[in-house]
Design goal:
globular, 3 helices, 28% helix, alpha+beta, single chain, 105 residues
Length: 105
């Protein structure tokens, strides 16, 4: 399944840490891979959220979760999506992206 589900979380990088490590202070984006989604699940999610069927990537925010027909998703996808959604807060969102993996067989 080439559709990957990520969680994007924005963290504040404090100024004092920035001085110690030599980095700029400001927001950090932490990306965590939550799993994979099937073509069928992605199709249902896109339809529910009004996303173009040809979109290769899209975001799911907290307010979008209630629009998704979770009961219609395949069991594995439902579990993956609900587990990832349970980790969301006001500073995070889910990101779905098509990741083509060529086979060299």
């Amino acid at each position: 399944m080439p559709w990957k589900l990520y969680r994007f979380k924005y963290e504040d990088y404090p100024e004092y840490s920035a001085r110690i490590t030599g980095h700029y202070a400001g927001d950090l984006l932490i990306i965590e891979e939550e799993g994979e989604l099937s073509e069928e699940a992605v199709r249902l999610i896109k339809e529910a959220l009004g996303i173009n069927e040809n979109a290769r990537k899209f975001d799911i925010e907290v307010r979008d979760i209630m629009k998704i027909p979770v009961e219609d998703l395949p069991d594995k996808d439902r579990k993956t999506l609900l587990e990832a959604a349970s980790k969301l807060d006001s500073e995070s969102k889910l990101h779905v992206e098509y990741r083509y993996q060529p086979s060299f067989d």
